[in-house]
Design brief:
With about 210 residues, this protein is of the alpha/beta class. It has 7 helices and 8 strands; from the N terminus they run H-E-E-H-E-H-E-E-E-H-E-H-E-H-H. The radius of gyration is 17 Å and the shape is globular. The structure holds orotidine-5'-monophosphate (OMP).
Length: about 210
């Protein structure tokens, strides 16, 4: 966990400051998965996803990455599951625009069948995950879970976190490589008092306990 946080800090994926979120909240930290933008960074990210998937003992038949951001994420995860865990898992992604020539259809890669695990970066409103589950069901397969890079553990529409809302409304377990609680533990150990205080304030205002 520490090494994944170190990597995110080194790459600028994880930053501290003031960031306006999709929700309108002003957050003292931000996670930008688009900055895993080199070969090494993407390889390391894939290893972290694969480790989290193996560690959680998730069972599935196909990995799915929702377009666009989920595409490199799912690809690197599939590579790492093979290289690090000896599992050759089929993977797929969707096109956003439907193709009416050539091979047709809007799923690229493995056909969606059986149990499908969705790989994504963060859940904000859950819209992207809802769309992904619709695509998977329309293909005749069954969404069985979501693996995220970061769970911000903050409230969605109501009392529950955005992640818990997805778990409840879509009946889908959501797991993540990193959670806000892990980041707080890290900061407690690393001794950056100002960053820690800002994040703890934010969590007491918008956070959920677990
Ligand atoms: P997609 O990855 O395209 O679903 O977008 C994720 C959304 O979450 C984007 O609008 C980001 O600006 C936003 N986001 C992050 O990527 N990282 C965060 O730490 C927080 C947010 C957010 O706005 O809640």
């Amino acid at each position: 966990m520490r090494s994944f946080i170190d990597l995110c800090l080194q790459l600028g994926v994880l930053r501290f400051g003031e960031f306006k979120l999709k929700s309108g909240r002003v957050s003292p930290y931000f996670f930008n998965a688009g900055l895993f933008n080199s070969g090494r960074a993407l390889a390391e990210l894939g290893r972290a996803y694969a480790q989290a998937i193996a560690g959680a003992g998730l069972e599935f038949d196909v990995l799915f990455g929702p377009a666009y951001k989920g595409i490199p994420l799912v690809a690197t995860t599939a590579v790492a599951l093979h290289d690090q865990h000896g599992r050759d898992v089929p993977w797929a992604f969707n096109r956003k625009e439907t193709k009416d020539h050539g091979e047709g259809g809007n799923i690229v890669g493995s056909p969606l069948r059986g149990r499908v695990l969705i790989v994504d970066d963060v859940i904000t409103a859950g819209t992207a995950i809802r769309e992904a589950t619709d695509i998977i069901r329309a293909a005749g397969a069954q969404p069985v879970g979501v693996m995220l890079a970061l769970d911000r553990q903050e409230r969605g529409q109501g009392r529950l976190s955005a992640v818990q809302e997805v778990e409840q409304t879509l009946q889908l377990p959501v797991t993540s490589i990193l959670r806000l609680a892990d980041l707080i533990d890290y900061l407690r150990g690393s001794g950056d008092a100002a960053q820690l205080a800002a994040i703890e304030r934010y969590r007491s205002e918008y956070g959920v306990s677990d």
